[in-house]
């Protein structure tokens, strides 16, 4: 049965099930506050609707709040967002599709979901030009254009190569667009980001997702035919790098310390492990941004 394949509360990475210790390890106050609010609302819903007067056949589905929170975490983390057409109406829908929801996420997936309007059926289809051999993993892109903090809220995981993540620069420093393009040859699509330095972790010149994210978020300016002035460019680069270093200094631990913590806890709770990894990826992205600059 489908339910036999669902993770238990201990195996789930959903932050609806996270402890306060897990939330603190995120080292992200806004994300932690958002998850506390989701937990509060879910518990409040259970208390309001699972009272002593509800029919037994409903109440026995979640006699304890812990069971209800687990069920909520399964629904939240296993649903997919899809635009579907019913008649003349096109609407966004959250769909729970048993077994298809077990496909893992990738920013370079080999499959995608397709809504077949005539039969009102969701199909898993292979991307054009892709070949899946026996033993290969089938992957889909859960959600395009979202930062890691959203993936954490919805699914309980983050990615070190998310091309849509953002570094929140708050200063006024900017580098000239021509200087930016001298490092990143951008054709307009994430797949076409290349560079002329050794920023990538792969052997060829393709920029991985973290570098794409860092490049996309670097503040730039351009005003007609005004060329970059080297002294101003050096000053802007120094200010942006210093801001990156200041961001890193505000964390209570370094990425290396977080990694050591992970390695020292092989049996850590899944939510704790996910929280520490999220903090590592945030710090590595900021460090990557300083390198790109």
TrEMBL record:
Q: What biological process terms from GO does the record include?
A: chloroplast organization; methylation; plastid transcription; thylakoid membrane organization
* GO cellular component terms given for this protein: chloroplast thylakoid; plastid-encoded plastid RNA polymerase complex
InterPro entries the UniProt entry points to: Rubisco_LSMT_subst-bd (IPR015353), Rubisco_LSMT_subst-bd_sf (IPR036464), SET_dom (IPR001214), SET_dom_sf (IPR046341), SETD3_SETD6_MTase (IPR050600)
User: What keywords were assigned to this record?
Assistant: Methyltransferase, S-adenosyl-L-methionine, Transferase
Q: Where is the Rubisco LSMT substrate-binding domain?
A: 230-277
The protein's matches in Pfam families, at most eight in alphabetical order, are given as: Rubis-subs-bind (PF09273), SET (PF00856)
* An example Gene Ontology molecular-function term: protein-lysine N-methyltransferase activity
Q: State whether keyword S-adenosyl-L-methionine applies.
A: yes
Per UniProt, residues of the SET domain are 90-142
The record's annotation in Gene3D superfamilies points to:
Rubisco LSMT, substrate-binding domain, set domain protein methyltransferase, domain 1
Q: What is this protein called?
A: Plastid transcriptionally active 14
Annotated organism of origin: Catalpa bungei
